[in-house]
Structure to design on (154 residues):
């Protein structure tokens, strides 16, 4: 996958959220248009659809940490930003670990293909193991893939 960057990127941000009337929000958004450029990954207006696949355990730990307002919590997800086209194994997606420490949101992500992202996530959960039908290659210093070393002690 030569065109995708496998660099892990980290973002920190401090969020303040306000409850404002819809008319005020629209006026604020319109006033910002003079200073912003449309996202070139989106359509002609700069918008795009977004799809996220969140991971959690059988005990729904990540969900309950959010509901209970735990100050240090994290979530794992695969996120795809797209302006169109079907999702395939070669579609670029972000594997993200998003965590919150008090009021600071931190996000670490890496760009992978959808196939690689699923493989990584499943392996981390122990759900993807080696296919026993595939013959392992011989390792250096061993007689076969898992046999004793070829050297002898004198």
């Amino acid at each position: 996958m030569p065109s995708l960057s496998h660099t892990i990127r980290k973002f920190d941000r401090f969020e303040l959220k306000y409850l404002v009337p819809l008319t005020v929000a629209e006026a604020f958004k319109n006033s910002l248009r003079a200073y912003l450029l449309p996202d070139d990954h989106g359509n002609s207006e700069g918008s795009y659809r977004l799809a996220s696949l969140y991971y959690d355990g059988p005990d729904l730990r990540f969900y309950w940490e959010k509901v209970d307002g735990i100050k240090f919590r994290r979530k794992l997800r695969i996120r795809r930003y797209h302006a169109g086209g079907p999702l395939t194994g070669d579609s670029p997606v972000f594997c993200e670990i998003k965590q919150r420490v008090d009021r600071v949101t931190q996000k670490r992500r890496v760009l992978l293909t959808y196939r690689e992202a699923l493989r990584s996530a499943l392996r981390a959960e122990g759900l993807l193991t080696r296919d026993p039908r595939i013959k392992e290659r011989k390792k250096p210093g061993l007689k076969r893939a898992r046999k004793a070393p070829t050297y002898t002690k004198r």
Notes: The first helix runs from residue 22 to 32.
